[in-house]
Amino acid sequence: MSMPGLANTDDGAVSLEHAMSAIASAISDPSRVRILCALMDGRAWTATELSAVADIATSTASGHLARLLQSGLTVCLSQGRHRYYRLAGSDVACLLENIMGMSVKHIRTPETRAPLPLRRARTCYDHLAGEIAVELYACMKANHWITADGSTITQAGLHHFQSIGAVLNPKTKRKPCCDCLDWSERRFHLGGDAGAALFLAFEAQGWLVRIEGYREVRFTEAGKKALQRHYGVVFTD
């Protein structure tokens, strides 16, 4: 039985609609959402670890992971007898972050829903997100280190990146630099290859450390001083 309005639609368009529906369906379950949010830290997790995060049985988590694999949202890595799951790529993380930004509009008093450390600084797959990331991005824009549309690092920006040891990938297949909507701040932070390079530089310099098993990151004393010196970010705690 044909659907009204699709009689003259080519096969490619119909396929796209089905593909979009499949992805939306894969994200529609709260347990799968919790699994995807855990994977937003950019690391690989076992089914047992993800079952604990989602508060479901391991066997149930395995079923959800199979669905996420089928939809192309996650990938599975085998290491000896163990299997690890991670997001399929930065584009999936960007999709999830945008959905979070849209969803928070429908939550009453959203500012109280996310823990303060998570809102302050966290990973968005492979780059920094949260209040501090938004402040950093605003500073970069004000100093003209990034073009107005957020798509390119300027020469002044490249000089800054080099000065802190942030290495950009000239052959990246992802966006070299882009705005990424921060779901908790409702403003933009730095995404793309540039965002990933900045995060790695901060980590290599010892300016931040990851909190094992969580998306939160913590800035060290050296990091707090460096961010104030380079970006004017003032830590009150």
UniProtKB/TrEMBL annotation:
It comes from the Bacteria. Pfam families: HTH_5. One of its GO terms (biological process) is response to cadmium ion. Gene3D superfamilies: Winged helix-like DNA-binding domain superfamily/Winged helix DNA-binding domain. This is Transcriptional regulator, ArsR family. Residues 12-107 form the HTH arsR-type domain. GO terms for molecular function: cadmium ion sensor activity; DNA binding; DNA-binding transcription factor activity; lead ion binding. It comes from Erwinia billingiae (strain Eb661).
